[in-house]
Amino acid sequence: MQRRQFVTLASHTTAVLAAPVFMRNAWAQEGGITGKTLTIGCSAALSGPLAGFGQDIKQGAEAALAHINSRGGVHGRTLQFNMVDDGYMPQRTTDNVKQMIGQGSAFALLSCVGTPNNTAILPLIEEAGIPYVAPLTGASSLRKGGRNVFHVRASYTDEVRRLVQRLAGMGLKGIGVVYLDNGYGREMLEDATRSLAEQNIQPTVQAALATDGKNLADVLAKVAEARPAAVLLATAGAASVELVRGVKKTVPGVLMAGVSVTLTSDGLKQLGDAGSGIAVTMVMPDPNRAKTQLVRDYQAAMRAKGHQDFTLGSLEAYVNMRVLAEGLERAGSDPSRAKLRTALAGIRNWDMGGFVVDYSGQSPYVGSRFIDLGVLNGAGRFLG
């Protein structure tokens, strides 16, 4: 009954130190561009607990690039995508980005994955002055200015608030929170407790899950003891899969609700029927419903690359790459990083075909506040 109610209601919604001195001279020179090519860099998890996000980014971004390059690239330059694995480890992310900037191998950056990872690299990016589009994090703590960073997705704060409002609107009072035991999860916990307080609700349980899931048994015991009516999943990646399975076995019938990064497309496949009934927020339109021109374009680009599975993660990466390409187009045939920053900041009410990006000309630059709600079926798709 709760599941149907959620679907019905949802249908109405549409720190690191400064860089050493020896690197600054290298940063002063713009790299990653020739007369024929322009390279976009990315550090993301292609291994480790968030590998599913990295694979989605790779597929979606490369699908967008293939389409753009098939039409002549941007001002005659072929766009290239240099994606480096960091295993979701902030220090590796930092090392990767330092190398890209120091060696001049990237003109701009796109969609590095993770809240702690982006926390680590944003000071480097501001120091270097390299444009960075669409960090794959919705952490509000990373949206407090910055002249070089252009977020696309809505914030986790907005996602969590929407979920809590929906659950409270269903009359649910016993709501617990399981959060990932890192910077991402702790910030999500703050968002959740604040949103619950707005609804005069105190969380029935707060449990920290290790990023590798090694304390899952203890977490499940805490949830079982509290017996909440609903659990907010402030987790991400591989740890979420066993958490969902465990909660379903330990507290049968409990409603689970997560944000856009709680489960990767690989995680949904692994869960199968066990994922049925999970409520999630979406910061992109449903990638399997070709109701908008954006989704139709995305599906065509994915098919052209031989991909038949359409996921929210790859759609987000496709959108992010197109936003960066739009900025390059507007920057002109003789682009510089300064011109690209100005061009991106100038994007106002750009309708991509059912998804609007608007940077409003001032920082913090956040292009979209799109949030939709849905409930997953056993095939990892959203119920109609």
UniProtKB/TrEMBL annotation:
Cited SUPFAM superfamilies: Periplasmic binding protein-like I
Origin superkingdom: Bacteria
InterPro entries hit by this protein: Leu-bd, Leu_Ile_Val-bd, Peripla_BP_I
BP GO annotations: amino acid transport
Pfam families attached to this UniProt entry: Peripla_BP_6
Signal sequence, renumbered to the chain: 1-28
Keywords per UniProt: Amino-acid transport, Signal, Transport
CDD domains linked to this entry: PBP1_ABC_ligand_binding-like
Boundaries of every Leucine-binding protein domain copy: 37-353
Family recorded in the similarity comment: Belongs to the leucine-binding protein family.
Protein name listed in UniProt: ABC transporter substrate-binding protein
